[in-house]
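Long-time lurker, first post. I've been practising inverse folding by hand and with some scripts of my own, and I keep getting stuck on stretches where the C-alpha cells seem ambiguous. Below is the full C-alpha cell string for one chain I'm working on. Before anyone asks, I'm not after the true native sequence, just a reasonable design that respects the backbone. If someone could post their per-position residues I'd love to compare against what I wrote down in my notebook.
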C-alpha cells in the first residue's frame, strides 16, 4: 500500500521556521519525484517545491525561493521542506505528493493527506 505521511505542521509566528517531513512507503522512492503542494482557504492548490531523489534536482515556486529548502533522505524514504522566514501568506494545508514523470503537476500519482501550517502576523 502506497503511503505518504506528512508531519511537522503547526502554528508559528511570522518570521519563524518549520520543517515539514514526508515519509514515503509502498513504492520505489528513488524512481519518483516528490513534491510539496499547498492549498490556502479559497485558493487553488499550488506546487511549492519538488525534488528528484535520483539526482537531487529541485524546483521552487517563485514566492518561496530563498526561504524554503527541500531535501531528501533516500535511506529513510523521507523528504523534508525547511521553511524559514515564514509569512502569513504561507498559511495553508501542505501536501506531499509523488510522481514518476513530472512535478509540479496536478496529476501526481500519489498524495498524502496534508498537514496544516498557520503563520500568525
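-- Answer (accepted) --
I ran through it position by position. Result:
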Amino acid at each position: 500500500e502506497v503511503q505518504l505521511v506528512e508531519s511537522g505542521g503547526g502554528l508559528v509566528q511570522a518570521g519563524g521556521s518549520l520543517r515539514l517531513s514526508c515519509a514515503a512507503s509502498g513504492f520505489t522512492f528513488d524512481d519518483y519525484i516528490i513534491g510539496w503542494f499547498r492549498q490556502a482557504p479559497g485558493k487553488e492548490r499550488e506546487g511549492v517545491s519538488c525534488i528528484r531523489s535520483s539526482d537531487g534536482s529541485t524546483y521552487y515556486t517563485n514566492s518561496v525561493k530563498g526561504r524554503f529548502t527541500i531535501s531528501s533522505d533516500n535511506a529513510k524514504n523521507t523528504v523534508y521542506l525547511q521553511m524559514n522566514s515564514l509569512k502569513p501568506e504561507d498559511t495553508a494545508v501542505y501536501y506531499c505528493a509523488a510522481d514518476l514523470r513530472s512535478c509540479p503537476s496536478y496529476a501526481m500519482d500519489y498524495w498524502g493527506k496534508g498537514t496544516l501550517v498557520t503563520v500568525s502576523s
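A couple of notes from the structure itself: The radius of gyration is 13 Å. The CA atoms of residues 33 and 120 lie 31 Å apart. Happy to go over any region you disagree with.
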